[in-house]
């Protein structure tokens, strides 16, 4: 599909706009508590509602695309928005801004506090309740638009039930695929509204290079490691790259995989590993930055940098490789029907995530429910900025601890 001659295309911005992409992503990286599902709520508020960098339906389609791809879905959504706004450099700026705060914090924690756990504290509990409110707000906002009729509402509820009853990464992939097939069948005779054109400032040639590089690295890195090339650098890069390439379902799923990769092999003992896991839950930003903790614990700052780049590289290559083809698929009538179904399933997956692990592990008492409800009202009706809601949640969680 030609990428010239469209009045509504977005040109690659100058350097000051790349800096703006970085600074907005940095703000999100500093304030986005609650894990990957909550991040989608923060992104929706910042990029769709406030800045209107991407329209509601395009955002939902991008979320659906990233749900299909292995790796950290929320980070891929952020990278994708950065690419749409500023090309490859915009994608790098968005990833760096969103990732840097938690990666740096976890690397510092690894070097300063190895072997110590993170105690259960009121402020941390408050952050978890903020996450409950953020996810509920995302469901409220996205559900009214993406599941407005009885068939899509049914798909959403069925997807939620399936993911809750069959809690594996494969289940999520199969649910999304089934919802796409259902959407094609249910909406095959429906006149689809033409989506707003989104210019992707990436050529298909560049996309194919990225997809090819993803496959080549996945095959070559284990061979180079086995041959003894690169020492600890290659071993760390290979382990993290494979983790980022083969995990569906986001950060929570990658943690047990990393445990099997690094604890039995002697890179970390179990106590240090779970200390890092506790710290990862307490910092904002993507859960994949747990890699920075592992890298720093093993090889200092250089290890943290290598591990962080390696675990996120597959996500970057895949989203850049997929975006040019995604843009063409969105204007295909059958693909639009599939996206109707997939977007409804994404709402269902959000509902499932709201229930477990967020609700079941966080809302343990009537006071927890009251604080979560108050935070939800602040977001939905008072239009309170997410960073202010985080502060209220921290103060409220601390107060609950004293009660």
From TrEMBL:
Keywords: Cell membrane, Membrane, Transmembrane, Transmembrane helix. It is found in: Cell membrane. The chain crosses the membrane at residues 21-43, 92-111, 123-143, 155-187, 208-234, 271-295, 301-326, 338-358, 370-400. One of its GO terms (cellular component) is plasma membrane. Pfam families: Chromate_transp. It is a multi-pass membrane protein. One of its GO terms (molecular function) is chromate transmembrane transporter activity. NCBIfam families: 2A51. Belongs to the chromate ion transporter (CHR) (TC 2.A.51) family. This is Chromate efflux transporter. It comes from Paenibacillus agilis. The gene is chrA.
């Amino acid at each position: 599909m030609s990428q010239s001659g469209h009045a509504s295309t977005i040109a690659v911005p100058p350097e000051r706009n790349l800096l703006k992409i970085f600074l907005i992503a940095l703000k999100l990286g500093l304030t986005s508590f609650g894990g990957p599902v909550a991040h989608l709520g923060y992104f929706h508020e910042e990029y769709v509602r406030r800045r209107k960098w991407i329209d509601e339906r395009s955002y939902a389609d991008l979320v659906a695309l990233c749900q299909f791809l292995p790796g950290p879905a929320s980070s891929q959504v952020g990278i994708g928005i950065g690419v749409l706004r500023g090309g490859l450099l915009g994608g790098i700026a968005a990833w760096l801004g969103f990732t840097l705060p938690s990666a740096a914090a976890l690397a510092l924690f690894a070097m300063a506090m190895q072997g110590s756990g993170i105690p259960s504290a009121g402020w941390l509990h408050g952050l978890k309740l903020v996450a409950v409110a953020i996810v509920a707000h995302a469901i409220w906002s996205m559900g009214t638009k993406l599941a407005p009729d009885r068939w899509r509402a049914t798909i959403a509820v069925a997807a939620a039930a399936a993911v809750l009853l069959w809690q594996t990464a494969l289940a999520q992939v199969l649910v999304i695929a089934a919802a796409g097939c259902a959407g094609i069948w249910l909406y095959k005779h429906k006149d689809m509204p033409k989506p707003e054109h989104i210019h992707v400032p990436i050529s298909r040639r560049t996309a194919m290079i990225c997809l090819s590089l993803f496959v080549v690295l996945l095959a070559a890195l284990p061979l180079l490691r086995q041959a003894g090339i690169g020492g600890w650098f290659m071993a760390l890069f290979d382990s993290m790259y494979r983790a980022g390439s083969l995990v569906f379902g986001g950060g929570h799923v990658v943690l047990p995989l990393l445990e099997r990769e690094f604890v039995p092999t002697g890179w970390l003992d179990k106590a240090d590993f779970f200390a890092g896991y506790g710290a990862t839950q307490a910092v904002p930003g993507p859960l994949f930055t747990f890699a920075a903790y592992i890298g720093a614990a093993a090889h200092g700052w250089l290890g943290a940098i290598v591990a962080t780049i390696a675990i996120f590289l597959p996500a970057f290559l895949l989203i850049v490789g997929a975006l040019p083809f995604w843009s063409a698929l969105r204007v295909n009538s059958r693909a639009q029907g599939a996206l109707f179904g997939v977007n409804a399933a994404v709402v269902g997956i959000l509902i499932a995530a709201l229930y477990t692990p967020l609700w079941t592990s966080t809302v343990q008492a009537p006071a927890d429910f009251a604080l979560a409800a108050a935070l939800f009202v602040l977001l939905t009706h008072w239009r309170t900025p997410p960073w202010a809601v985080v502060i209220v949640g921290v103060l409220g969680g601390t107060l609950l601890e004293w009660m």
